[in-house]
Amino acid sequence: ILKTYIPPILIMLGSLGNVLAIIGIRKCHCSSSMRFYLMFFAAINTIVLFLGCGLEWISHITEIQPVANMQDWLCKLSQFVFNLITYSPYWIVVLMLMDRIIYVWSPIHAKSFCTAFVAKVLVAFTYIGLLCLSIHAMWTYELDPHSGLCNIDPLQHYFQTVVWPWISATLYSYVPLSIMLFLVPLLLIGLKLRCAQPPSTSQQSPAPDQLFTVTITVSVIFFLLCLPNVILNFIDYSQPLWLQSHQNYARFYLVSVLCQKLQCLNQAITHIVYLTCIPGCARALLQSCNHSAYNGNNNDIEVNGQLLTSTGNASIDADLIGCVISTLMLISHGQL
Q1: Terminal CA-to-CA distance of the chain, rounded, Å?
Q2: DSSP 3-state assignment of 326?
C-alpha cells in the first residue's frame, strides 16, 4: 500500500493543488518578496514530489530499474540533482522566516530587503551553496559493474560513509531545522510586541502582515513532517548496536518508509496551507477561473444582421468551473 497506492494520490493532490495555489498567489495582494518565496516554494515542492515519490513509484509499478541504475553518468547525475533539489526547501523556509522577521523587527529596512529582487538573489546564492555541497556526487558515485546498482566508489568509501554523511546532514537539514526552531519563536515574539504597540500612521500596508500566518504555519508543518526522517537518518549514521539485529533493522526500514511518505506529504499539502492561510488566495483563484471561463465563452455571433452574444453558456461554464474548484478546495480542507 505504501509503495503502490499512496504515492500516486500524493502526486496528483500535490501537483494539481500547487499549480492552483500558484495561480491564486499571483492574483492576491501581498509583498513582492513573499509572493516570490511562496510561488517558488510551491513549484519546488512539486518537483521534489516527483523526484521523491514519482520516480520510485514508476519504477515499482513498471518493474523498470531506477534511473540511477541505467547508466554510469545517470548514476552520478541523479545523485547530484536529487540532493540539490530535495534539500533546497529547507533553506527556502528559512529565507521566508528571515523575510518576515525583518519586516516585523525592522520595518525601516523592510522596503530595501523585503523585495522580489533580494529574494531572487538570496535563492540564487542558496542554490549555489547547495550546488557546491552536492557536486561531490559526480565523482563519489559510480555504477557497480557487478551488481548493476548505483553505489559509492570503493576508493571514496570511508569518506563517503563515515565523514561526509555528518557534514552533508548538518548543512542539508540539521542547520536549517535548528534555524527554524530559533526563528519561529523570534517571529512570534516580534508579532506580540508589535501588536502591543499603538497603531502608527507610518506603518506599511497591513496586507503583508497577514502573511505571518502562512509563514509560521508552513514552517511548523515543514519542521514537524521532516523531523522524523532527520532523526532516522541520525540513527542510521550512528549505527547503534540494536540496529545490527535483522528483526530490528526490518522494523527500522518500515518506519523509515513511513517517514519518507510523511516527507512526501509535506510537499503534497502545501496548497492547503496556502488556500487556508493566505487571505484572498482562494477567492482570487475562483475569480481567475470564472473570468477565464467567461472570456472563453463570451463569443459574439452575427445572424441576419443581428449581433447575438453567448453569455448564457459562459455563465453556466463559469459556474461549473467555480463549482469544481470549490469542490477541490473543500476536499483539500477535509470538509467532504
Answers
A1: 23
A2: helix
Alpha helices for 150-210 (secondary structure H) = 157-158, 164-169, 175-196
Burial category of 276 from C-beta neighbours within 10 Å (exposed 0-12, middle 13-18, buried 19 and up): middle
DSSP assignment, residue 76?
A: H
Which residues are registered as beta bridge partners of 308? 301
Closest CA to 225 of 277, 267, 183: 267
Give the C-alpha separation, 195 to 179, whole Å.
24
Compute how many other C-beta atoms are within 10 angstroms of the C-beta atom of residue 61. Answer: 12
C-alpha distances in Å from residue 255, one per residue of 166, 177, 263: 21, 21, 12
Helical axes 211-238 vs 246-268, angle rounded to 10°: 160
CB 229, CB 259: distance < 8 Å: yes
CB 220 within 8 A of CB 180: no
Whole-Å CA distances, 88 to 94, 158, 219, 274: 10, 26, 14, 19
Q: Look-up: residue for cell 530587503?
A: 113
User: What is the rounded distance in angstroms from the CA atom of residue 219 to the CA atom of residue 266?
Assistant: 11
pLDDT in tens, the chain (336 residues): 667 788 888 888 888 888 888 888 887 777 788 889 999 999 999 999 888 888 888 887 887 888 888 888 888 898 899 989 999 999 999 999 999 999 989 888 888 888 999 999 999 999 999 999 999 888 888 888 888 888 887 777 777 777 888 888 899 999 999 999 999 999 999 888 877 766 554 444 434 445 888 899 999 999 999 998 889 888 888 878 887 788 888 888 888 888 888 888 888 888 888 878 776 666 666 666 665 555 545 444 333 444 334 334 433 344 434 444 444 444 444 443
Give the C-alpha separation, 296 to 189, whole Å: 49
Task: Return the C-alpha cell found at 31.
Answer: 509583498
Strand ranges in the chain using DSSP code E only, listed in sequence order: 141-143, 150-152, 300-303, 306-309
